[in-house]
Amino acid sequence: MNTTPSGSIVVAIGADGYEAALQFAVAEARRTGRELHLVHVLQLPAGEAYAGVYGGMLDTAKKTLDEALARATEVAGDDVAVTAELVDNGWVVDNLTRKGDTGSTLVLQHRAMSRLKRIFTVSMVHGAAGKARVPVISVPEEWDPQREDKGFVTAAVQDPVEAPALLRAAFEEARSRDAELVVLHAWWLASGFDVVVVDTA
After folding, report:
1. I need a surface site. Which of 10, 23, 31, 94 has the fewest CB within 10 A?
2. Which domains does the chain have, with CATH numbers?
3. Is residue 104 within 8 Å of residue 137, measured between CB atoms?
């Protein structure tokens, strides 16, 4: 299938792991009554290497997606409709966000890495979150649905003018999940000013 079903929950299938994202997305699709759409983007090498390795990489990508589709179908059972799509033009973040924008939510899995390693590693989650027009859910690779409690929804408020609409959405999300709502506001000022602000506050 080459088209993202409208309103579906879109899951990014990474070659380096996707189980936690898949488990979360199936639970979310079941909770909301939506379809599940898996997307795997084949990241291609640049320049001269392209022609020599494309065939092998495409076979590997198809195998990854087929395995993910089989796993998603197993986890979802008869409760959730599952479709899958392979994109082979290599622009991972752009393709994921474009596919996600047709759906309702984009779900990605993020790896557990040290802060130092994150500095030198491109984050697909950060890139997608910065471009997507739908909510992006980043699921830690160690997430386990069996250990998950009701949890909480965090609403980060930056501008008081935007707060009412944001909080309405946050309250609705927390209510639908039977979760606690936490409202967060943070700021940072250059060191010459923060003492004055904190002292006068």
Report:
1. 31
2. 1-142 (3.40.50.620), 151-201 (no CATH)
3. no
